[in-house]
């Protein structure tokens, strides 16, 4: 039920049809932070990028089609939450190396922008992206 509600809210937010359950985004920048001796570094300046990321709910995966393709199997969907003007969708995932991570898609309606956060125990990657309409 949580998964269906999240998908419905996602669809309504972007004005797509109920049949469209694969969401594509154009990535424009990448940044990261690493954990060293229990302390997180500052995020690096965003490096310009141009590639596609997708959320495929029927197949339960998130894909990032960068120079090195990354795939994440969704293990758990979290309910949507609103925080500081952002809509946040969260997922527990496992990457192709078997490493667990928590992924968030944060959308700021006023700025017409989304960010994809991939949170590992020792590093966080963040991608600036925009929704690609069909």
Automatic annotation (TrEMBL):
Domain of life according to the entry: Bacteria
Protein name: DUF4468 domain-containing protein
């Amino acid at each position: 039920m949580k998964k269906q509600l999240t998908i419905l809210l996602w669809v309504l937010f972007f004005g797509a049809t109920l049949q469209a359950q694969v969401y594509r985004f154009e990535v424009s920048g990448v940044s990261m932070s690493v954990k060293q001796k229990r302390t997180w570094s500052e995020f690096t300046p965003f490096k310009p990028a141009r590639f596609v990321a997708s959320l495929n709910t029927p197949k339960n995966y998130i894909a990032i089609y960068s120079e090195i393709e990354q795939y994440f199997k969704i293990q758990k969907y979290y309910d949507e939450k609103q925080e500081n003007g952002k809509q946040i969708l969260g997922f527990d995932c496992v990457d192709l190396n078997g490493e667990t991570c928590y992924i968030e898609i944060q959308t700021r309606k006023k700025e017409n922008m989304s960010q994809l956060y991939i949170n590992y125990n020792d590093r966080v990657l963040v991608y600036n992206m925009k929704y690609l309409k069909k």
